[in-house]
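Re: the request from the purification team.
They wanted to know what the chain is likely to look like in 3D before they choose a buffer screen. I agreed to run a prediction and write the result into the notebook, where they can find it.
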Amino acid sequence: MKIGIIQQRCGNNVSANKERLAQHIRQAAAEGAELVVLQELHNSLYFCQTEDTQMFDLAEPIPGPSTAFYGALAKELDIVLVTSLFERRAAGLYHNTAVVMERDGSIAGKYRKMHIPDDPAYYEKFYFTPGDLGFHPIDTSVGRLGVQVCWDQWYPEGARLMALQGAELLIYPTAIGYESSDTDEEKQRQREAWTTVQRGHAVANGLPVVAVNRTGHEDDPSGQTHGIDFWGSSFVAGPQGEMLYRAPESEEVVKVVEVDMKRSENVRRWWPFLRDRRIEEFSGLTKRFLD
């Protein structure tokens, strides 16, 4: 399968961001992409650097204007499209939601981000209610997609649950970057840890992984920090964690990567992790901590 990834800078004009994304989506489709994956919260700047109630005005219902916009693109280009939206479920109830658009423009399914961070410059708990849809793959015309969002990508449990339900591909729209006060060595340790843990999900589950991150600098509106330098580095890994493509840190990228979806079958025969799991001994995983 040919998978298109779009690593893009974002500005403060939502309409302009969407139009640039549309151009890049068309480019990926013209290069043969059957599935296109976008970065986290791609319509706007990453607004979670501060806690500001006015930012809730960016949220919209699902279905809504953005699903209509991206659904029309998916239908026009005959692709499956993975989007990442700020969902307004009700007044005072909002989610960070990935929505998958089918080739006919319909919504194939959605996933609400389960793990919500609350760290300096990533104040997501102020904006997002934790997801309540669970970890369930989304069936599409190009396969069963195990879609999660950003902070979810650090947790092996979500990847495993997707795999156990027949996911054929793990997908992570992402917005992650450098803290300006960290040393260059620490920055690279963080970026490599981010890449490594997701490649580990590929290995442990025998599945390809697609992670699409933002790039570019975004200022902190409050001025309390120096903003975020998103580290890009979007990548596609095969079912043994092999790196099929990795984007640069600070450049916009439209890249189509061909993934052999049949390799997972053979890899799982060679390394039968699902066969050998001692599931009767895993009850402790449902505890916060084992004293």
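For the purification team: The CA atoms of residues 225 and 239 lie 39 Å apart.
Please add any questions underneath this entry.
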